[in-house]
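Sample 1 of the test manifest.
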Amino acid sequence: QVLLVESGGGLVKPGGSLRLSCTASGFTFGDYYMSWIRQAPGKGLEWVSYTSSSATYYADSVKGRFTVSRDSAQNSVYLQMNTLRAEDTATYYCARSTGNGYLGGFYFDFWGQGTLVTVSS
Amino acid sequence: NLVLTQPHSVSESPGKTVTISCTGSSGTVASNYVQWYQQRPGSGPTTVIYHDDHRPSGVPDRFSGSIDRSSNSASLTISGLRTEDEANYYCQSYDAGKWVFGGGTKLTVL
């Protein structure tokens, strides 16, 4: 079955950096696009990034600070987070994206369990 | 920018039917597909409706989705409510290079 496992979360000081990993199994990783979505404690879901074979999109709140990469050999996608702020504190979910060819047709069909990032001094 | 508005909470009794709305602030909700995700406490979200009204394999047919173009809104309807349906539900769509979520609706089954 599809399994997405996030790791790399933890406590980091404001201005610091952290790299999250998401390792996928149960499907052909190279056939799918991947996304990151976050959820601040007690709050709703906020889309962070979407990466396809040709482009990566970022939410305005993280653009210029976060970078996504993927390693098909490791079946993994990564989220490099720099210049972290208190408002970046959240559980970060990795999600597989699937759809029917145009961006508006893509959605998040499988999600991981998330990894908690806490930005605090 | 698209904003999706959901009621903060709804409650209903077991066996009854509940509908959760998701209203778009601008443009039209019908311009792009709407998805619905269920999130139980302590767990990652799961998809219950995709592309407006499609159910993933394994989601019971008690869950259904619809679009009302006249009111620029989408709806998730759950019939025959069960206690295990108690969760937060989020609608989601797309707008100009961004994927947008509604604020979420807490469903209480009591």
